Amino acid sequence: MKAVILAAGKGERLEPITHTRPKPLIPILDKPLLIHMLERLSGLGIKEAIIVVGYMRNKIEEVLREYSLDIKTRLVVQDNPLGTGHALKIVEGLVKDLFLLIYGDILVSPSAIKELLNKGSPSIMLTRVTNPQDYGVVVTSNDTVKDIIEKPSKDLGVNTINAGVYLLDESIFNYLDNIGLSERGEYELTDALKLMLKDNVKLKYSIANVNEWFEIGKPWDLLSIHEKMLSKLSEQIINGEVEDYVKVKGPVIIEEGAVIRSGTYIIGPAYIGKGAIIGPNSYIRPYTVIGRNSRIGNAVEVKNSTLMEGVHAQHLTYIGDSIVCEYVNLGAGTITANLRFDNGIVKVTIKGKRISSGRRKLGAIIGGFVKTGINVSIMPGIKIGAYSWIAPGAVVNRDVPPKSFLKVDTKYYIEQLT
Asked: What would the mean pLDDT of 321-350 be, rounded to a whole number?
C-alpha cells in the first residue's frame, strides 16, 4: 500500500512560523512533523509515500535528504494551491487500489492509523473536539458516514470531525472530476466525498482519541502538542553532559552533545536538543522544548515554551508560553509577557482577524531570524515576523510584519527592511 501526504499549503494561519518553513517541517520535539509521519508509516509496513509539495518545496527536499528513512518518497508538485481535491487529483495514476491519504499538518499515532487501515475499504478517520464548529463536522450512523458539513453555522449537537486521514481507492478520482470550486475558491476533497455518499457508497469510519491525533492549525497548537507529548515522559534520559551543581527534577530528555552548565535547574517534563548549551544558572520549567544548537545562558528562565534550532538567549531573559523560531537572538533583558492584567483569554490576530487562543497564558510568537535589542518587552499574543529587528527598550504591543525594524524614538513606528 502507498500513502499520499498533502504538504503543499502555505500555512498562513501559522505565520510567522511559516515565514521561513512549510508547515510539514515544523519541528515536534526537534524533528520535522513530516519525518515523524514518514517514520510512523514505515513502521506500519507502508513502502512508499507520495508527497504533494508546493510552498518552499526545496526545503522539504533538503530535509528528506538529511534523514535516512525506510520508506521510499516521491515528490509531486502542486504549482497552484487550489485545494485538497486538486492536490489529490494530480497524483491520479500514481496510486492503485486502496491507498492512505494524510494531510500534512497533522500528527497521528500508529495505532489510530492501523485502526483505519483495518477497515479494508474506503474510510475516514474522525476525532472528537470541543469546538466542532471550527472544523468539518461528520455525521455518522451505525458504522458509516452519513454527511459531512464544513464549519456549520449552528450547533448540530455533533462533536465528531474530519481528522484529515483517509483510506481511499481509485474511484475517488472519478468524483474529483465532478466537483466545482467551493466558496473559498478551492476544489475540496470533502465535496468529492459527499458525492460518494449521494451515490450510496458506503464510507466507513474510525475514531482517534484525543491523545492519538494532533493538528497544527494555529501557532499555539505547537505548545499543546508538546504539552501532551511531554506529559507521557516517565523517566530521565540523559545522553548529554551535565556539570556539577545542576539539578534535574522529573522526566527530562537531554540529547547527545547537549551541555548543562553549573547552577542550572531543570524541572520536567522537558526536552533539550542535540548540541544545546544551557546555563550557567538557567531555569528551565516544565513543558519546555529547546531545539538543537540553542544557547540559553545566565539568569534566563524558560517556561512552557518551544524554542527551535539555534535560538540564542544568553542572559537576563524570560520566555514564557512562547514560540521562538529558528536562529532568533534575544538581547539581554528581553521579556515575553504571557498574562493579561485581567487574567482574560489571550487573543491573537490570524489572517487579519482577532481570535481567541483559548489560553489564559500565551506569550510571543517570534518568527525565524528575529533580533531584539536589550530590555525589549513583548506583550501577550504578539507576533513578530521573520527577519525583523526590535530596537532596544521597545514595548511591542502590536504585531510586527516580517523584515521590519521596529524603532523607538519620539513615536512608535516600523520601517521596512530590505
From this structure: 98
**Nearest in space to 389 (alpha carbons), one of 361, 357, 415:** 415
Amino acid at 289: V
Report pLDDT digits (tens) over 232-266: 999 999 999 999 999 999 999 999 999 999 999 99
- The beta-strand segments (E) located in 153-310 are 160-168, 204-208, 213-215, 237-238, 241-242, 247-249, 252-254, 259-260, 265-267, 270-272, 277-278, 283-284, 288-290, 295-298, 301-303, 306-307
Residue 410 has pLDDT above 50, yes or no: no
CA-nearest of 83, 79, 54, 81 to 186 is: 83
Task: Assess contact for 24 and 38: CB atoms under 8 A.
Answer: no
Condensed to tens digits (0 to 9), the pLDDT of residues 287-317 reads 999 999 999 999 999 999 999 999 999 999 9
Among residues 398, 394, 404, 397, the alpha carbon closest in space to that of 374 is found at: 394
Bond into 280 cis (ω within 30):
yes
Cβ of 232: how many Cβ atoms within 10 Å?
9
Cell of 83: 485545494
What confidence score (pLDDT) does residue 417 get? 74
Q: Strand ranges (DSSP E) for 181-330?
A: 204-208, 213-215, 237-238, 241-242, 247-249, 252-254, 259-260, 265-267, 270-272, 277-278, 283-284, 288-290, 295-298, 301-303, 306-307, 312-315, 318-320, 323-324, 329-330
What are the tens digits of pLDDT across the range 339-381?
999 999 999 999 999 999 999 999 999 999 999 999 999 999 9
Read off the C-alpha cell for 168: 481511499
Say which DSSP state 344 is in. Answer: P
Query: Looking at residue 413, what is its pLDDT?
Result: 60
Domain architecture of the chain: domains with CATH: 2-217 (3.90.550.10), 228-416 (2.160.10.10)
Residue 274: phi and psi, rounded to 5, are -60, 135
Residue 197 has pLDDT above 60, yes or no: yes
In whole angstroms, what is the distance from residue 10 CA to residue 13 CA?
A: 9
Collapsed DSSP state (helix, strand, coil) of residue 25: helix
Q: Does pLDDT of 69 surpass 90?
A: yes
